[in-house]
């Protein structure tokens, strides 16, 4: 999504988010990712101002203290950025790809099922279809990407080939060039 993103050149406007909207965003995040409930007030303090940055291609970014924490495309679901994921990685559903897939994931490629179902990959059985997951890499501590599951974990294990997760945001994409 951010491969062709040009940072400041793509920004159309920046506005502060009302406190009521900020509370709604926080509650939506906790509803989607229940493990965030204990740290949500640390991530989004009441006194800090959340900024909404509207960009080209109907992308909306939510920034706080100079960091992009959330984004959404059109009026779709609000997606955590890798900056937010690195602050509390255990709060989000995770999958792990094997070493052979790392260079492809970091170049923006979609995550293929064999990279998830190999002996060194990790695909938990409770991952449903159409959810955002954090993509970890074998042997690495930090998250490498955020993706959208194209099918459930059981379907991926059954099919065994093809695209399992659509790569939405990865380390090194142009999202960090904004601020």
TrEMBL record:
Principal location listed in the UniProt entry: cytoplasm
UniProt xrefs under SMART domains: PUA (SM00359)
CDD domains noted in UniProt: MCT1_N, PUA_MCTS-1-like
GO cellular component: cytosol
Gene Ontology molecular-function annotations: RNA binding
Gene3D superfamilies reported for this sequence: 3.10.400.20
Domain PUA residue range list: 93-172
Pfam families with a match to the protein in the record: Pre-PUA, PUA
Keywords: Cytoplasm
Cellular compartments annotated: Cytoplasm
Domain of life, source organism: Eukaryota
UniProt record, GO biological process: formation of translation preinitiation complex; nuclear-transcribed mRNA catabolic process, nonsense-mediated decay; ribosome biogenesis
Family of the protein in this entry: Belongs to the TMA20 family.
NCBIfam families named among the record's database cross-references: unchar_dom_2
Function: Involved in translation.
Protein name in the entry: Translation machinery-associated protein 20
Organism listed in the record: Schizosaccharomyces japonicus (strain yFS275 / FY16936) (Fission yeast)
Origin organism lineage: Eukaryota, Fungi, Dikarya, Ascomycota, Taphrinomycotina
Name of encoding gene: tma20
